[in-house]
Structure formats: C-alpha cells, structure tokens
Amino acid sequence: MSAALDWSAYASYGQGDAYAGIPARGGHYARAVAVCIGNRQCQRTERKGVMCPSFRLTGEAQHSTRGRVEALKAVLNADGTEIDFDSPELAAAMALCVGCKGCKRECPNGVDMALLRTEWLAQRAQKHGLAPRERVFARSTRWLARWPWLGRLIRLRNRLPLAAALGERWLGLAAARRLPEPAAQPFTAPPAPAAETERPRVALLVDSFTRHFEPGNATAAIEVLTAAGYAVDVIAPVADDATPQRALCCGRSLLSNGLIDEARAEAQRLVAALAPAIVAGIPVVGLEPSCLYMLKDEYYSLGLGAEVDKLAKQAFLFEEFVAREHAADRFKLAFGPLAGEKVLVHGHCHQKAYGGMKPLKKALALIPQLDLEIIEAGCCGMAGSFGHEAEHHALSLQMAESELLPALRAAPEATVVADGFSCRQQIHDGVGRHAVHAAVLMRRAMKL
C-alpha cells in the first residue's frame, strides 16, 4: 500500500504488544487503525460529548468508530494482491462518518477516524477520480474566486425549485437544502499596519469561507484586535508564490474529499506565507475552527516538516487568543455591558475535540452582564458537505433535532453564537435564526 498521508507517527504503535491487533497489510496506516482496542465508548447510549453522531442516531454498530475500524481491518487482513478499498462493506461503514474528530478526544485511545477515512477517500480518488459533486465541494471557493458570476447562479438555484431539483438529479445536491450564497463582495484586506509600530503584531488567517461568504467576521475580528492594542497583518501569499493572485487556503475542503496532493500544495503555500510570522514568534489567529485546527493537526499528516511544530504552537482561534492575552494582561479592551442579553453558544465539533470551548466561554465572559449558556449538544449535523448530500440531508437534520435545534427553540429571543460556518448554516436552515461569530458579538460590545 502506498499511503497518501504520512502515518509515520504510528510507526512504533503496538510494538511487542500481542493484543494490538495490527492488520496484516497497510504498514503504518494499519497501526493507526489498530489504535482502537474495542472498548466501545463510541457505542455508548447516553448523551455525552460528541462521539459518535451517526451511531447515536442509528444505533447501528457499523456507524460507530469501532464499526468502521472493524470494516477497515477486514479489508487490510483480506487475501489478495491489493487492498480492496472499494469494499461495499467498508463504503457502508464510512458513509455516515461526519469527520467530527470526537473520537480523537473522547476515545480512550484517541482513534482519529476522520483522518483514517481521509486516507480511504484518497485511495479511492487515486483509483477512480472524484465524482462531479465531490469536485464541487473540494474546489468551490477556488472556483468562486476565478468566476465570481457563479454567485449569481447559486442565488438563482436557491430561488428556482426546478434548478434545485435538477441539481439533486445531476449532482446529488439536496434540493431541500439552500446552498450558501457568496457575499456581494469578498473580503479585502485593509492596508497593513506600519512596520515600525510598537503595537504587538498578530497574523490573521482569513479562511476561504470567511473571505467569500461572511467577510464581516474578518472585519469584526480586525476591529476588536486593533481596539485591543494589536497591529493586525492579514496573511497574504509570498512574493515568489507560483500563483500570487490566488488567495491563501488551508486546504481543508481538498483534504476532506481525498485530494491529498492538492491539499498539500495549498498547505505549503500557507506555511510559506506564515514563515516570517513563525520565525518572529508572531501569533497566528484564525476564525474558522476546521481551518485553524487543521494547521495544528492534519498538517503533520501532510508531511510538511519541522515548521508545523512551531506553527502549531503559535496558532490560535480568535477567542483562544483573546482569552490567552487577557489572562496575560495584554488584551487592552474593555467591553460595554450587554445587560441581560441571553446568549446561547454552540461549539463546532473541532472546537470541542481540541479543547476550544473553555477559551470561548472565557472570551465571551469579558462582556459584562451577559447571560451566557453553552448548549450541551453534539454535532449539528451539517459537517461541511454532509448536510448538502441528497442521501444524507434528512439524517443531517435529525442530528440537529436531537439536541441543538430544540435548545434554540426553547430560547427564541436569545442571541446565538456559533464559530463554525457549517454550524451557522444548519442553525439558519433548522430554525431560521442568524447565528453570529464570537468576533461579531465582541465587536458589538466594544466601548466606542
């Protein structure tokens, strides 16, 4: 097996352990599969944490982390000259994995099923290529940048039921689901602060979804950080970038669809652009959880070298940075009170998986007189492209209805904070509420 991702971190797993159950084939990838030892925490029935959203809903063992491991072990242990990544049983087990990363945090052994599934997708993509729908999901923001008129087509599709029906028939895009509509103008970076400024510098990563769909989130973050005493540099391609006119991207959408080489190329562009900040010890601040945490996790599996270690230590979500700087008495901004305002916070799955919820709560608690509540809910069910897939649309909404949407309906006047782009879309589609990024709420509470 020629792995698409770098699995060398698992090279010593199970060494000398007779109970590791390492599959016969697959090299280091097989060792990563064998991290699961079958204690079945992923198949628990009580509502706790995130893992495993699809098992919670279906109650079927194959739709748990353990069930997917068993399917992977079956193909890695099977006879034959090649590993059968086309196995129907494996495809069925992987079909409802939403990549929540819950198992990486909540499984006692830290099984990373989202990454294991990415390798499976990559093996299939190398053999068969991508279906048209997967190409759309993988490259949508790149196409929007190249052909801005696509935004008009998306808006037209959302308003014409026949167009939506044809999209479901031809591409498998759920006709009942509104596609996210691009902003009238994508984000444009303000002039860079003067190099000689005495303010501490921050490198802001504006991800592709913020840039094209919700540029106001980046503007709000810049205004808050500037008011708090920081000089904000928006990360841009380096001068010798092969495509300097193309905005930077972390590569998340490409990786999620198995396009490892393209994801690696995007990651290399971003790491090159961040190199001066890394050397200078400048914090890197991101807005979208799935993008920012990719720098701290999946970049290791893309084999990008020692730079990833330094980057991972300097990369923070917006609210993580705010909480960290306030604790160090460096965040110089006093917020005005939002007296008695009820705020419900829904955490992105990756925020929960990487311990980002406590900093989010601490950052929002800087706003006086805020009635703040963290919604105890698992995955919202949108999970990037999952909720847009015709065969998964109904299940996506069921995930949301299991905990999240009832909590929102119980507090109809509350402001809703959700940092995840997909989470905000699911909330809008599910209850017709406009959820905001934490940076937007904090800007509203600034003393002007």
From TrEMBL:
Key words of the record: 4Fe-4S, Iron, Iron-sulfur, Metal-binding, Repeat
UniProt-listed InterPro entries: 4Fe4S_Fe-S-bd, 4Fe4S_Fe_S_CS, Cys_rich_dom
Pfam families in alphabetical order: CCG, Fer4_8
Residues annotated as domain Cysteine-rich: 343-425
Residue ranges constituting the 4Fe-4S ferredoxin-type domain according to the UniProt record: 34-111
GO function terms (MF aspect): 4 iron, 4 sulfur cluster binding; metal ion binding; oxidoreductase activity
Name of this protein: Ferredoxin
Species whose genome carries this gene: Pseudothauera lacus
UniProt lineage: Bacteria, Pseudomonadati, Pseudomonadota, Betaproteobacteria, Rhodocyclales
